[in-house]
Amino acid sequence: MLDIVAGAFFISAVGQLAPAGAWGQADPKVIEFHLARGDFSRWFAGTIRDRRLATLAAALERDLLRHRTMDIERARERLVAHIKNSYEPE
């Protein structure tokens, strides 16, 4: 495992070391962006060399994509139903 300075992680957007607890205050859109790209699992596995954390992050990344797909499908179904109800003759 990589030696982490005083329990801190590097957060590139900020450009400095920040305590791991600071992630709880990160903009959710930033977290979602990096989860969707698979950045966290790659970073934890490659840079931090923490397989356990990388596995957890990968599961969260897959979960986000699965839910996003379900949400898109649900939205599509609702749009189709609305279009049918509004524009197709009965």
Descriptive notes:
- The protein is mainly alpha-helical.
- It has a domain at 27-87.
- The protein is built from 3 helices and 2 strands.
- The chain has helices at residues 28-37, 39-48, 51-87, and strands at 8-11, 16-19.
- The protein has a two-stranded antiparallel ribbon.
- Strand 1 (8-11) and strand 2 (16-19) form a beta hairpin.
- The longest helix is centred in the last third of the chain and has 37 residues, at 51-87.
- It starts with 7 loop residues before the first strand and ends with a helix.
- Mean pLDDT is 75; it is low at 1-6.
Task: Record keyword descriptors for this entry.
3 helices; disordered N terminus; 90 residues; mainly alpha; 9% strand; single chain; two-stranded antiparallel sheet; elongated
The shape is elongated
Portion of residues in beta strands equals: 5-15%
Span between N and C termini? 65 Å
Nearest-angstrom radius of gyration? 19 Å
Count of helical stretches: 3
The parts where pLDDT drops under 50 for at least 5 residues are: 1-6
